[in-house]
Amino acid sequence: MSVETIAAAITENRRVVLVAILLLTAGFGAGATTLEEDTAMDEFRTESDERETLEYIDENFATRGGETTTAHVVVEADEDSGNVLERESLVSVLEFQRALHEDDRVSRTLVDDDPIGSVPSAIATTAIHEDRARELESRAAELNATEAKLAGALERLEADPDAAIEAEFETVDERTPVELTDDHADTFETAARRLRRAETESERETAYRRGTRGVLGDEYDSLAADRAALDDGLEPSLTAQIDHVESMSDDELAATIERVLGADEGRDELFALMPTAYDPGEPTASGTIVAVVQDTEGEYVAVDSAPASIVTGQQAIDEIGESELEGSASVFGNGMTADEIESAAPDSLAVVGPLAFAFVLVVLSIAYRDPIDVVVGLVGIVLVLVWTFGTMGWLGIDFALVFVPVPVLLIALSIDYAIHLLMRYREERTDGTLDADAGMAAGLAGVGVALVTVTLTTAVGFLSNVVGPIGPLREFGIVCAIGIVAALAVFGLFVPAVTVSIDNFLETRGIDRRRGALGTGDRLRPVLVIGKRIAHRAPLALLVVAVVLSAGGAYGGTQVDTSFDTAAFLPEEPEWTHELPDSVAPRTYTAAATIETLNEEFVRQDRRAQILVAGEITDSETLQRVDTAGREATTSETVARLPNDAPAIRSPVTAMESVAATNESFNETFHDADTDGDGVPDSRLAPLYDEFFAADSATAETVIHRTDEGEYEALRLIVTAAGDASSEAVTTETRAAATAVDGDGVTAAVTGQGTVLNYQTERAIVETIVTSLLATLAVVGCLLVVVSRRTAGSATLGLVTLIPVLLTLCWVLGTMWLLEIPFNYITGTIASLTIGLGIDYSVHVSERYHRELERGGTIGDALERTVTGTGGALLGSAATTAGGFGILGFAFLPSLQYFGLIAAISIGYALVASVIVLPTLLVYWTRFAAPDRDPSGPERASQPAATSTAEDD
């Protein structure tokens, strides 16, 4: 069946077509109501050994990751003091912590043990601890002095049988600060009487013990209990901490800060809460972090997904911080980021949607210059979107962030189809010889092959994503292919049927519906014929420039970075939005600015690489090898440095060292296990681990996995990455460090959220781009060869049609490199988009040119009609599409902004390649490869071989 026959059937049976389309739309509309939203980025991560390793760590170590999430409150000093360590600021942080405990929205999410960590709390607790220690020492001295006085009294009573016992006790009572009671007196009197009756040395010693230590037994027991409690760790209330800080003198406060944050005495976990520029021991600092640990109750939590309780809790933390803290405060946590990411899409659509609609309406009005055609085109676009999202609903594909560009893409392709169809329809009716039915049939026949070819090749371009390893990108390719087919159905069936029906109805009532096609007038003609003129005057120079630019672009494409960093997901709030009405103004976004502050001023705790050591971890050499891996990692520039210049590395050895520094009993065990004096235990490791858990199980559980049966199964080494270190560099360096451990009974596996897994995702994105690109080019090339062989009798025309697409792709990749736009979860689809739209434009030009040649015209005439007719339609389509994508630059997600910019550039390049470069290629194809053309024809004979072609001026 010929194209002409099919085109005529559509116009003749337009009522059947309309009914069928409406019924299908109702079915797809029902599916669209079931569509759900999913913003989870975890779907981008691929299954791997590294991911399984992280899951093992989350399940078996006290990671504060699997069942908890941490909100980091960045506190920056106010402008007046510039110091978060001054008394007022310290107190405000402590009051902030107390307010968090008192607020039900926050308190119900806090973990049971040590939920809030801060430097002010550490300072206050240390000061109270030291005061308490001095108090206990004073009590001990008083008890010892009293004991000595009681002993002296007993000696006098023993030496003088007439001395009064009561009088001696009262003398001691008067001379000691220890409050002695009647019970004390009774015990002393009993001991004194026994002393006077003692006949043996043993009885005498017993009497002395009872009359001294025995009298003060309760006091000594209380002192011992208080000392034990102090050794176990003092946990004063926040009110007590506030009162103590307020009562301290300036000198006492400065001295305590120096002891807590001194370069030698300071603890790494506290330095992790201080700016990297902080000078250890100094009583001044520009900022600090308060870490709030929340219980997720087993629910999934990530940068883009968090349960409502966590979101509400972190929002409350932010609200309380604004009212309680001196200076400025901002909260960074998965609850805040998930809420902002979820809000970014509707907020962006509220701004971008009206702008896109207005832009498309204006451009279509200019292109069509007819309100009826504009309305029909808009209705067609709506149907395409309903069909696409309806199919997603029926297939159970959730709407994720990666699908945000899909509506713009489908609108762009729909407009492209509509403009090509309508402009060809108008061209066919220009001379007034054809009615609406015949004109539409001729127009459909003229662009039908091109539309079908474009649909096949573009759909294949997007379907090539299914060969990649990333689930959302595979779904993206499927959805785009569905939408493209829907666009062909709607604009190849519905729009022609509706247009003919309307035009016939109006023309029977005397209203002329004939309109001029875009590009056929005098205004755009000088622009559109540039490609024809270059093909006539400087074809070789054009091709040389195109090839050179493409070579540079191809090189640049190999240098484009790939990123899956958290910052790419976070929305930003441009200043111009402050001028918007409240009804469309976006919410305030803070996470992006906060994470920038964390990157620049602090050590980010969410960027960690980890080495899991499993196997014979009680072997005498294991800790030595783990320590070697840690020391090897410290030499890397990818490791963050704390303010005391210590590397941000946590290992079993460093964890045991921190506990040994405050626990004398464990300190002895730790050093006893180090037989060679190098600071690393190398003997009796199992008993050492036992003592470690007994001394501080909370710390031990972060670096050692002990099974329920008491067996030691795995160790963990944690490396915090520098803020400017790439995921690739961190992964490479960590793997190199792990090689020092792996082997001889133990295995060392590398993993890490925000580092190793990000790098794997980045590699998967690159793999998807490369594999889909190669698959697309291969399949599309074959399709073009087959189609051109069937329609033009020459397979080479398909290859020529593909060349502008390759040029465009190289130019786009080179531009991404120059503009430093990385591949990420959205911009990674740009290769598919470039091929899809590039094929669209090239096919329309090649198909039109071939048809014009078949009509018997000269090369010059064929080029003239192609670049003014089809070229005009392409110009209108490109302007609309590029503008539509460009409006994504007003979105609040940086990744969408990048995508909109590079997509608009891609469309511009595709238009240039199709209407400027392709005409020259088509002329050379005509001269050397086109079938059934006489090489000695007049046009060829009249042109020099080097400059070739013909232009009928």
From TrEMBL:
Coiled-coil regions, chain positions: 126-160
Source domain of life: Archaea
Predominant place of localization: membrane
Keyword Nucleus: no
Domain SSD as annotated: residue spans: 375-501, 765-924
Region span, Disordered: 931-953
Stored Pfam families: MMPL
GO CC annotations on file: plasma membrane
Keyword Transmembrane helix belongs to the record: yes
Annotated compartments: Cell membrane
Keywords from the named record: Cell membrane, Coiled coil, Membrane, Transmembrane, Transmembrane helix
Record-annotated membrane-spanning stretches: 349-368, 375-394, 400-419, 440-464, 476-506, 540-557, 769-787, 799-819, 825-843, 873-893, 899-925
SUPFAM superfamilies (UniProt xref): Multidrug efflux transporter AcrB transmembrane domain
Composition bias, Polar residues: 944-953
Bilayer topology term: Multi-pass membrane protein
Matching PANTHER family: MEMBRANE PROTEIN MJ1562-RELATED, MEMBRANE PROTEIN YDGH-RELATED
Family membership noted in the UniProt record: Belongs to the resistance-nodulation-cell division (RND) (TC 2.A.6) family. MmpL subfamily.
This protein's name: MMPL family transporter
